[in-house]
Amino acid sequence: xxxxxxxxxxxxxxxxxxxxxxxxxxxxxxxxxxxxxxxxxxxxxxxxxxxxxxxxxxxxxxxxxxxxxxxxxxxxxxxxxxxxxxxxxxxxxxxxxxxxxxxxxxxxxxxxxxxxxxxxxxxxxxxxxxxxxxxxxxxxxxxxxxxxxxxxxxxxxxxxxxxxxxxxxxxxxxxxxxxxxxxxxxxxxxxxxxxxxxxxxxxxxxxxxxxxxxxxxxxxxxxxxxxxxxxxxxxxxxxxxxxxxxxxxxxxxxxxxxxxxxxxxxxxxxxxxxxxxxxxxxxxxxxxxxxxxxxxxxxxxxxxxxxxxxxxxxxxxxxxxxxxxxx
Length: 327
Description:
By secondary structure, the chain is mainly alpha-helical. The protein has one domain. The protein is built from 13 helices and no strands. Helix 3 packs antiparallel against helix 4, helix 5 (121-127) packs antiparallel against helix 12 and helix 6 packs antiparallel against helix 11. The longest helix is centred in the first third of the chain and has 30 residues, at 50-79.
């Protein structure tokens, strides 16, 4: 599989590869929000907990990426080049693997899936992809020294106002016993984790495949064995051993193969071509598509503050894209 992908990449120009990666990323991110909410929401009768879904995600991705990583490491060693870590499963040095794996793999998945327990998909549509340009710009400013133009600053200001319209309303309802604010904070935290990963990938100039393999290797080794032991000893309340096989297979294939393998490589390819800030701004379609998808497929209401926040976030992202292209 690794060798067959090289001719395809070589036959396509970097511009075409970047655009394909952007389309794939937007499509998977949109469906991810809808499927994650439908799977993790206790009111919809799902039999898997968020930690069960994280387990399926990491197992599914590892079935493809860990053998791939071991193959890359053996090939690099035969050529007398490259680095490796985590028992030869990660084709990146240990320090880099730990950093990108922690933020892009383990923390992102744990925080995001638990957020869907408390907050609807419409909130995730605004606060997760909508917050990426904000966090990424701040991190790129601090770590990469990128300049923030006045036009882009205005776009980020619109995003902040949109986030406040959505997250601020749920925070106010917290005093009445509401719990949506917990999910909103988790969505913001997940966006910050993914932005950290994207900036690290750009800073280290990581290859898309190797970065995704390293993220998966760290997440698998740090979570899967531990969670399996906790389930077997009944230390945690999980349903992996009692859930229908069809649900386990679906989550393993979609969350692992789709959301990690395909989406992870596509997103990193997009970073290589467009850069971390413009890459996250290209995802301007994700908030709108997933929010309206939540209304159509999940029956979620589209309140005025959510619609206004969605409009401001999308406008802010699009404004930032135009400013980035002009610069």
